Amino acid sequence: MSHSLSLNDPLRLREVGERHFAVKGTPTDCVIMGARHIMKDVPDLVLSGVNRGRNCAEDVTYSGTVAGAMEGTVLGIKSIALSQAYAFTTRHTPYWQTAIAHGPDLIRRVLAIGIPKDVLVNINFPDCVPEEVAGVSVTVQGKRDQELLRIDARNDGRGNPYYWIAFSRGGTPGAAPGSDLAALNDKRISVTPLRARPDRRAVHDQAGAGFGLSFRRQLGEDGLELLGLERFLQRGGGRERPAADCLRHSR
After folding, report:
1. How many Cβ atoms sit within 10 Å of the Cβ of residue 32?
2. What is the DSSP string of 136-186?
3. Angstrom distance (rounded) from CA 167 to CA 184
4. Is the torsion defined by CA of 208, 210, 213, 216 positive or negative?
5. Per residue in 160-212, pLDDT tens?
6. How many secondary structure helices (H) and strands (E) does the chain include?
7. What is the mean pLDDT of residues 144-170?
């Protein structure tokens, strides 16, 4: 599903209660329908989730939850994706109370710091009860050991083969320090700024050099700004505390 929208099938809208609607479509369809049809004014904030299961590392490229927040960012709306992690033993009963207990205050604190243009915020709550949460970490997107990815081959009742895409069970040993995976392993809430329009300055410069062009000169510094993290860490033109410190000390 990821960041997909429906172009060949009509969307179905159903009002299920006062200011509550259901859309038959993708998460991207839902955000577009809400922002462009249901609401008279452009919303101040898009909250996508809380998803059942973590959305970190490579998950963000497949996630409909992150895609909903990404579409809000594309539309120029501040957007936050929220997910509740669970383990094999808690997959049927995730600790929803952890997201409920910590989510509202954390959202307010992120909004108080400010979300830069073209950046969405991806929040993951750890697999533990609210009282066991060790704190909040501003993280980078992690990377899993892809050797854990495997194909589970089986045969149906008629002997025909079929396959499951699967991951080996277990934690995430060796998760890079400062990553979303490491934060969840340490029972910390992970707050990850993600760029809605990925860019790679070094790759552009290298490609430009090959053609005898300067991407930096043609696009300018603003056009090559990647994460915009410097603006995420600055407010009012003056340098402030890093976002991690702002979150840690604003309790």
Report:
1. 21
2. EEE-B-----GGGEEEEEEE-TTS-EEEEEEE--S--TTPPTTBHHHHHHT
3. 18
4. positive
5. 999 998 876 555 566 899 999 999 999 999 999 999 876 656 666 666 666 65
6. 9, 11
7. 85
The percent of the chain in helix, strand and coil, each rounded to the nearest 5, is 35, 25, 40
| Bridge-based pairing state of the strands 161-167 and 189-195 | unpaired
For residue 226, give both structure tokens: 């990647």
Q: Which pair of tokens denotes residue 64? A: 């409909």
CA dihedral 183, 188, 193, 194 (to 10 degrees): 50
Give the CA angle between residues 150, 154, 156 to the nearest 5°: 150
Beta bridge partners of 58: none
Q: What gap in Å lies between CA 80 and CA 114, rounded to an integer?
A: 12
27 within 8 A of 65, measured Cβ to Cβ: yes
Among 13, 17, 8, 5, which residue's Cα sits nearest to residue 75? 5
- The tokens describing 115, both together, are 């979300």
